[in-house]
Write a structure and sequence with these properties.
With 702 residues, the chain is of the alpha+beta class. α7 (346-359) runs parallel beside α9 (396-405), α10 (420-436) packs parallel to α11 and α13 runs parallel beside α15 (587-595). The structure holds 1-deoxynojirimycin (NOJ) and calcium ion (CA).
């Protein structure tokens, strides 16, 4: 009877809206409202300048073999708070980041189960982050999530920049379409290749960029993905509601939790100016402060490498084609005949070290230095590398000493072949080997199906592995650039030794058939929201058949566009990916890559429209020099910029590297002009760029 009475009172109070609670962003533009619906299900909605961004959307969980946490809640209490602080990142797009938000914390109780769940909202000027928190409590210990019920109800049939939901890869070109068109445009040839379990004809990945007809830019992603699985989004395209779609493990289970625990933050950014999305540091701000005490060993790196020649098929990772001589799992190369195309050999690597030293690069990456590539490629999908045994033509110490004598650092490569347990077993040995041989950075990779079999690249188990590799690397003072790993969610604030990730379609695809010419105008709005990408720009020879006659790919970009990427694709790790011989043909354009900084005091977002164009100016850390990059994804366009970001009263020399009038990303990509002009903070520039083109400017104090 008493119970019933409570419910009656509760329903009455709900009708009066007594459960509704609001917070606004510090600038007052965004309003978030939390409420419990008549079933006691938590809901939230978000407006920006009085326009609906997220309509009433449900929050909660389906548990495996247990009572769900989705309805029957009451509010035990709530707290509000405000926070305003400035922190200094170890590397970044600026030297200081402001973390300014208003917070609302709801303490909820599910009466029937007596279980407690808190929901914490943080409102920034650029949007909201919220997460679920499960406090320590008597009635909730271990639990397995079958489904997260978080919804993001859209207010219309927006335009989206999306890639298909996939538990294992993000290496896709983006499709720009209305939400209602996703189902029809979902590339069946891609989804047919996916395991059946990960197929959804309306499933897309985050970070998802959206634009409304009213001109709002909305971005949905997550922050601080720790000990949880990746959230994709599945669209209910009748109602235009996105539902959280968590990556399962090999058993089909979603995250395994033990209270006390928190989920990652779910983030919704919004603005009527696309530049605000690029300038937002909300994702970093929602992560914990730096855990590494002494960060002096973490340094941004500009590097060259033995890489593009292998990706294009011009040379090989493997030492021999004589597969018979290299038996499965046996690494005796003494009988094997060299294939003559093995790139990681002493002579060739020394040439590259010379090139790096001559042009002032910090590092040289060498892939294919260690035994096993024949077995992995030729025989066994289950091959396990040991990360310490070099091929006979690569002398680790000789190369290390040579590099040192030239003032260049070698960068290690760990292709794990996705044998993840094997990598974990070898990790201490592999990192120790690096320390002993003077390596401070590693590019790791997770190509192919995960071993143990059935695990997904984006499951909780794998997320924990990537995190383990980063934290263990920090113990050894090693910087990590992980390819095919989970897309970043701002973790680099806490572990700034994570200096790069791939986790999207990088330049390698330009040698696998090509990417869309506007790809690089989307990535900063999507993949880069969570952290830097090792995009490996700087290709000057767009005709890949010139490197490998059997590869007819074309790099869909102009040289000026390639230069601009060093500014527009922010990363503390930047590669000059092309071959020295191609740079030697265009040394005047190469000068920009030599000059451009990899660490910044300040970034100014001059122009931005997802899928179309991005123009950014950045001030090189500790100097008065600026670098500007513009990438243009669609039809030729005139960019109008003002140099008012420069210090007043100072004089500068600007060198403008731009598409020539007749440049064309397909037929004439190497047509560029270089012009020097004097500029001050009063100068303005009208600059043309072609589709797949752009411009880059270095601005040096006179
Ligand atoms: C895929 C990576 O993205 C690429 O950069 C690397 O060269 C190969 N895997 C080999 O590990
Ligand atoms: Ca890759």
């Amino acid at each position: 009877m008493k119970h019933r009475f409570n419910i009656l009172i509760f329903t009455f109070l709900t009708f009066l809206g007594i459960n509704a609670q609001q917070i606004t962003s510090p600038d007052g533009n965004s309003v978030l409202e939390f409420d419990l619906n008549t079933k006691g299900t938590p809901t939230y909605k978000l407006t920006y300048k009085n326009k609906a961004v997220i309509k009433a959307s449900k929050l909660g969980f389906i548990f495996k073999d247990d009572e769900n946490l989705e309805s029957g809640f009451t509010i035990l209490g709530s707290q509000t708070d405000s926070f305003d602080d400035i922190w200094k990142p170890v590397w970044g797009e600026e030297s200081e980041i402001r973390n300014h938000y208003n917070e609302l914390l709801l303490h909820l109780k599910q009466e029937a189960s007596q279980r407690l769940m808190d929901i914490r909202f943080r409102m920034y000027d650029e949007g909201v982050g919220f997460r679920y928190e499960f406090p320590e409590q008597p009635h909730l210990g271990h639990f397995v999530i079958e489904d997260e019920q978080t919804q993001f109800a859209m207010a219309g049939d927006h335009t989206a920049f999306w890639i298909p939901g996939d538990y294992d890869t993000q290496e896709y070109d983006y499709t720009e379409s209305r939400l209602s068109e996703i189902r029809g445009l979902m590339d069946k040839s891609i989804t047919e290749n996916l395991s059946q379990k990960s197929f959804s004809s309306t499933g897309v990945q985050t970070s998802l960029m959206l634009k409304t007809d009213a001109g709002l830019y909305i971005n949905i992603h997550e922050a601080a993905l720790i000990d949880y699985s990746v959230m994709h989004l599945e669209l209910d395209d009748k109602h235009m509601v996105f539902n959280a779609w968590l990556t399962p493990d090999s058993q089909g289970n979603r995250p395994y939790m033990v209270a006390p625990a928190n989920t990652p933050w779910r983030t919704v950014m919004v603005s009527d100016d696309a530049r605000d999305i690029l300038a937002s540091r909300m994702t970093y701000n929602l992560n914990a402060p730096c855990e590494i005490e002494d960060t002096s060993w973490i340094k941004p790196v500009k590097y060259v490498g033995v890489w593009w020649e292998m990706i294009t098929g011009m040379s090989s990772w493997a030492y021999t084609n004589d597969f018979k001589a290299v038996k499965l799992g046996v690494t005796d190369y003494s009988q094997a005949k060299p294939n003559g195309t093995h790139a990681a050999n002493n002579k060739h690597v020394k040439e590259l070290i010379d090139f790096a030293a001559l042009h002032g690069f910090d590092g040289v990456l060498v892939e294919g230095w260690n035994v096993g590539w024949e077995d992995w490629f030729g025989h066994s999908k289950d091959y396990v590398f040991d990360f310490v045994t070099p091929y006979p033509d690569f002398d680790v110490d000789e190369i290390q000493n040579y590099a040192k004598s030239k003032g260049v650092e070698m960068i290690m490569h760990h292709e794990t072949s996705s044998s993840v347990r094997n990598y974990e077993r070898h990790l201490d040995g592999a990192y120790k080997f690096m320390k002993d041989h003077g390596y401070h950075a590693v590019k790791s990779g997770y190509v192919g199906d995960i071993l143990p079999r059935g695990e997904n690249h984006y499951s909780q188990w794998m997320v924990n592995h990537y995190q383990y590799a980063i934290e263990k690397a920090a113990e050894y003072e090693i910087m990590v650039n992980a390819h095919e790993a989970v897309r970043p969610t701002g973790i680099a604030r806490t572990y700034p030794n994570l200096i790069g990730n791939e986790s999207a379609r990088g330049t390698e695809y330009q040698a696998f058939g090509g990417s869309k010419p506007n790809h690089v105008t989307v990535l900063p709005f999507t993949r880069l929201i969570g952290g830097p990408m090792d995009y490996t720009p700087g290709i000057f020879e767009m005709d890949v058949s010139k490197l490998n006659p059997n590869n007819n790919s074309h790099v869909n970009s102009t040289i000026a566009n390639q230069l601009a990427l060093y500014v527009t694709m922010y990363s503390p790790l930047q590669m000059a990916a092309d071959l020295p011989e191609n740079y030697n043909r265009f040394l005047d354009a190469f000068q920009f890559i030599k000059d451009v900084a990899v660490d910044w005091d300040k970034s100014v977002y001059l122009e931005a429209e997802p899928g179309s164009y991005i123009t950014i100016a950045r001030k090189a850390k500790g100097t008065n020099n600026w670098f500007v990059g513009n990438v243009n994804g669609k039809a030729g366009r005139i960019s109008n910029i003002s140099f008012d970001f420069l210090e007043k009263g100072k004089k500068y020399i600007a060198t403008i590297y731009a598409d020539a009038k007749d440049a064309d990303y397909k037929t004439n990509p190497q047509a560029y002009t270089i012009k020097k002009i004097k500029v001050t903070s009063k100068s303005k520039l009208k600059q043309n760029s072609v589709e797949g083109g752009g411009y880059a400017i270095s601005i040096m104090e006179e």
